[in-house]
Amino acid sequence: MLLTRADWQAREVTHAERADAITADWRARVRSGQKHPIEDFLFTYYPVKPTHLRRWHPGAGVALEDAGDFERTAWRWYRTDAIGSVSVDAAAFLAAKKASVDFIEKLLTRTAARVGQFGCFGLHEWAMVYRRGDHRHDVPLRLGQSGTDEVVESHRIGCSHFDAFRFFTPEAVPLNRLSPTRDNQPELEQPGCLHAGMDVYKWAIKLGPLVPGELLLDAFDLARDIRWLDMRASPYDVLEWAGEPVAIETPEGKAEYVRQQRAFADRSNALRSRVVDAIRDARTVALTG
Fold first, then answer.
1. Each residue of 31-78: pLDDT tens digit?
2. What domain of life is recorded for the organism (predicted)?
């Protein structure tokens, strides 16, 4: 596909404006030194600079007409043809990042194909502070330490996500019914997991220019929306930032958590499919030249 100069420049501007809106509050907090216990996570755990997030990529197989005199030609993983059209060098990217791309494709494909599990109730966040005096976030626990510990002890924990499980306190580790590792991640990851849904953004980041800009920002939007539920259902008192909690220690809170969790599973699977399609487009381009 060949995009005219007017077309791709319009898409680039739209993308940059959307990215600027996404990062505006974060950039203001950086300047003022303020903290936000919910949204800062999206810029610290996923360390993508706003300047990189606002870069629009067309994805593999899309050539940008008359783009040879633009900054993009100096970006890594781009190439310019004889008539000045610029496109992603899919073959070079796939050759250099083969192991990572293969892992991401396998992980996302298997996760999307798996039946979602909707009985975890976000207890991973509770297990991260179980019997612990110091916590990851400088926010008080809304039930206090003893009340939080009681919630953990009164539930069966079945966290399937390695990057959540690795932050469990030592006392909480043996309470988990599963033993997630990086190696068994493709076998355990399932679409009902909030953190797996957030991580679609991480995998899109790692695929760099293979992922169209619109898809990257859609993945960010999903991660941001999930993060709000993750913290509203957590043991932390985030009333000041997020309003009333999703109190998963109650039947009503559990029902609300599962309702939102199911909707996020559908959204995350749709994005997984788009990311996998972007990988497969890149493989086709690399083979056909």
1. 999 999 899 999 999 988 898 899 999 999 999 998 877 788 888 999
2. Bacteria
Question: What SS3 class is residue 257?
Answer: helix
Instruction: Report the candidate in 221, 241, 218, 232 with the shortest Cα–Cα distance to residue 260.
Output: 232
Q: What single-letter amino acid sits at 276?
A: V
Q: What letter does residue 210 receive in the DSSP assignment?
A: G
CB of 117 within 8 A of CB of 160? yes
| CB of 284 closer than 8 Å to CB of 61 | yes
Q: Which residue do the tokens 């033993």 mark?
A: 179
- Residue listed under structure tokens 């993750």: 230
pTM of the model as a whole: 0.93
Q: Output the 3-class SS for 82-146.
A: CCCCEEECHHHHHHHCHHHHHHHHHHHHHHHHCCCCCCCCCHHHHHCCCCCCCCCCCCCECCHHH
Q: What DSSP string runs through 226-254?
A: HHHHHHHTSSB--HHHH-S---TTSHHHH
Residues 6+ apart with CB under 8 A from 102: none
Place of tokens 């355990």: 188
Query: Alpha carbon 77 to chain centroid distance?
Result: 23
